[in-house]
């Protein structure tokens, strides 16, 4: 999150993040968040302005945490074809701690209004990941990285959905193996 948070605001955001992910955006009200955070509703509104702004802050912070983990994995890898698969490497370790699947897809299902401020965060996260795949495929030598980038995004999202909705704990590993094949086909190197 770009802004610094007071200790009370930090508690509010941490509690909201847990509750929003576990129960859903609409199922969680500001009364519950305030109570579990140990702050008044007035403090919550003073710090975030609205529930919509709190939902947006939750998704922004979650997006940044995901991107940081992917970037850290990228920093560990030198071989271009392996870098393409970095989000899948992270996904294998991410899913066990996130059993409800993708928070962005979950939020999107609850926020049909394209004008909701959190929708831009959801769309931005998916666009960032697709662009990361495209950039890394190009760096690995794929002559036309766009179609493979989309395929990798779909594999990634499918693994999150299968793990979250159906408890298929093996989905991230299977998606990572399939992504290796897609990468190999796109760049002509082993996955």
What do you see in this structure?
- The protein has helices at residues 7-23, 30-37, 41-48, 51-76, 80-84, 86-94, 103-110, 117-139, 145-166, 171-187.
- The chain has 191 residues and is mainly α.
- The protein has two domains: 1-49, Orthogonal Bundle (Arc Repressor Mutant, subunit A), CATH 1.10.10; 55-187, Tetracycline Repressor, domain 2.
- α1 crosses α2 (30-37) and α9 (145-166) packs antiparallel against α10 (171-187).
- The longest helix is centred in the N-terminal third of the chain and has 26 residues, at 51-76.
- The protein is elongated and about 60 Å long.
- The chain starts with 6 loop residues before the first helix and ends with a helix.
- This is TetR/AcrR family transcriptional regulator.
- Residues 6-66 form the HTH tetR-type domain.
- It holds the Pfam family TetR_N.
- Residues 29-48 bind DNA.
């Amino acid at each position: 999150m770009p802004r610094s948070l007071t200790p009370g605001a930090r508690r509010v955001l941490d509690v909201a993040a847990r509750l929003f992910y576990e129960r859903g955006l609409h199922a969680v009200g500001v009364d519950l968040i305030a109570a579990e955070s140990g702050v008044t509703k007035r403090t919550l509104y003073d710090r975030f302005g609205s529930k919509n702004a709190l939902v947006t802050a939750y998704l922004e912070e979650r997006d940044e945490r995901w991107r940081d983990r992917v970037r850290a994995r990228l920093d560990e890898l030198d071989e271009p074809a392996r870098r393409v698969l970095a989000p899948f490497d992270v996904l294998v370790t991410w899913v066990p701690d996130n059993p409800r699947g993708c928070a962005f897809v979950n939020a999107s299902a609850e926020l049909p209004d394209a004008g909701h401020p959190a929708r831009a965060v959801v769309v931005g996260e998916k666009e960032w990941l697709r662009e990361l795949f495209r950039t890394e495929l190009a760096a690995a030598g794929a002559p036309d990285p766009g179609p493979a980038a989309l395929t990798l995004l779909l594999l990634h999202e499918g693994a999150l959905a299968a793990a979250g909705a159906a408890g298929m704990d093996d989905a991230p590993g299977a998606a990572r193996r399939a992504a290796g094949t897609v990468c190999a086909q796109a760049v002509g190197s082993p996955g």
